[in-house]
Amino acid sequence: QLALAGSCRSLGVEALISRLGAKLPDAGHTLLLYTLLNSQPSFLRSLQDDTTHLQKVVIGILHGMYDESTQGSVEHHCLLSVCVLILSQEANLRPILVETKGVLPWYKERNFHHASSAVGLADAIILCVLRALMHVVMRLKDPYLASNYFAVLLNISPFINDIHSYTAERLVGVTHKLAKRLSSSHARAQSGDVGSPLMEETLRVLFRSIWLCVKCTTRCINLQYVLARDFLDIEVSFSDPYISQLCDGADGGPRAEEL
Fold first, then answer.
1. Distance from C-alpha of 28 to C-alpha of 30, rounded to nearest angstrom
2. Cα 226 from chain centroid?
3. Ramachandran angles phi, psi of 152, nearest 5°
4. What is the residue-level pLDDT of the chain in tens, covering all 259 positions?
């Protein structure tokens, strides 16, 4: 990995990013990307200045987050999550992530495989974070890794104007499904991982992400449509006192009835 970093220092930005785009999300190049994002401000500026560069890097990271078979280890998964977290924290990058579209040839649940069906990078981040987050919460049960994904969602949500219809479906759907699971497990007084503090915190973050999308963005018609369409079902879950208490006013955020 050190030899790889040394050889890449002699490359120009174009060649370096092309190499990253071709090799990500393998572990060595993920580590190289993490190092560049942390130590080379000029690398971040190059991503801001050229959306093609940004596309290659973001799509490479998201591929690794989406496909567990590419991650290799929890440490690799953590590096992927930190890389996307660093990008989501950059104030100058967030509007570019919203405006720039990309093709996701490896995405199976929806056709984002061609230029005509390209999706915004911010939408792609939310979709892949939701998938990775539920894997982390339900299987890995790793609160540190989950906290990285929580931060990404909360960084992106206030800025994602014109949220894609499928992203809106997934964000509301995953939140509602988790609320029903927690409500059911609480009613049955089950022990074990179901109803764990990590699942409860995940619900709070997802709920707050939806609220931030609605409150802070000027155009979120697709999200508003999904919430209105599924209102009766959602109301049943969030009227449960246990679920309502979990979500109400968490960290100065919304109350359950605000949705």
1. 5
2. 19
3. -60, -50
4. 444 445 555 567 788 888 888 899 999 999 999 999 998 888 888 899 999 999 999 999 999 999 876 667 889 999 999 999 999 999 999 999 999 999 999 999 999 999 999 999 999 999 999 999 999 999 889 999 999 999 999 999 999 989 999 999 999 999 999 999 888 876 555 444 445 889 999 999 999 999 999 988 778 899 999 999 999 988 888 888 888 888 876 555 555 555 5
